[in-house]
Amino acid sequence: MGKDIASNQGHSVNAKGEPAPQELDPEVKTVFVVEDDEAVRDALCMLLESVDLNVRTFNSAREILEAYDPTWKGCLVLDIRMPGLSGLELQERLLQLGCSLPIIFVTGHGDVQMAVRALRKGAIDFLLKPFRDQDILDRIHEALEVADDLEQQKSTRDALLERLFSLTPRELEVLAMVTEGHTNKVVAGKLHLSQRTVETHRASVMEKMQASSLAQLVRMEILLEQAGGPSFAQAIPEPSTSGSSDSHMSPLARVRLNRDPRKIH
Hints:
Elements: E1 30-34, H1 38-50, E2 54-58, H2 61-67, E3 74-79, H3 87-96, E4 103-107, H4 112-120, E5 125-128, H5 133-165, H6 169-178, H7 184-191, H8 195-208, H9 214-226, H10 251-259
């Protein structure tokens, strides 16, 4: 019976003892298995490869943290109890790194409360050991579907954020107000502008946001918030009293700064 044995660098060898590729194809989804029990780790690897799933194994939390790449796609299968960092601590570290890969925990009978804590922090499922092969395969396929949904949401969010980045502060104010249901006349009064100026800003907003109607703008805001982005009102820059401190940036500006470390003007 062949084995897939994780090396100290988080790379694996296949059943023939040949080294697996060290670089992952960023377009291919992979199941990342973190399990300190070599027998369980090897069995999981062989099972996943038998159904043509890409798999990469690690024997500790620290090992996967050293190898982690934010471009990874797929899902994680984590043992909840491991020497050193536990599965829960690993989950927390990955969240701090911005990792959004769906997580499945495998746990012993005495760890159900820990598994519930993991679910509350965003894990999508957990399985009690011992589990049937089909059960873990079903959970992994579900996790990969969730990963597809998350990737689509991120793509939508990024596209909408790029459009928002193109708006001026005044256009953001007009956008937020019109999507709250205010008429051009009300917006003009609140912003101390002429109605004609508001109409000009509104037309510019529609063009930059690639929207053909107010309803479409509202749907964009809903999609953006569902994908973890700011509302249009939150995107409005906050007035600064002491230069360009990050504390005075709008949530949108902070999102942008995180994506591009260059100074935002």
